[in-house]
Hints:
The chain has strands at about 15, 40-45, 50-55, 65-70, 80-85, 90-95, 95-100, 105-114. By secondary structure, the protein is an all-beta fold. The strands form two sheets. Strands 1-2-3-8-5-6 form a six-stranded antiparallel β-sheet, with no helix packed on it. A two-stranded antiparallel ribbon has the order 4-7. It is globular, with a radius of gyration of 15 Å. The protein starts with 12 loop residues before the first strand and ends with a strand.
Amino acid sequence: GHPGRQIKKANYTILYKNLKQFKDKYGKLSSDQVSLYGYEIWAKPQPADKYAVLLLNNDGNNYQDITVNFADIPFKSPANIRDVVNKKDLGVYSDKYTCSNVPPFGSCTLLFSS
């Protein structure tokens, strides 16, 4: 699994919200001092100008609405968004998309396309 560090290699982008970042002497997050809560957003470019986007609820107690801003991915709007797990087209959105009621430790897996 992911060791709790910010990744900026291999064309990945990770955005953290409400993550306590304790750094070790090498400037990396120390896995024994990190307390995850809030949420994470992962995005990776795909062929044919698409983006895979994963929204993770790190809160083990509460459902959350998680919003991804297109500028943070980066993805040029508008975007056709597909729920990969449920195999459902969600529609065309511009600027941002909110995955509602993500369960504790749950996720929302999306595919953005032009």
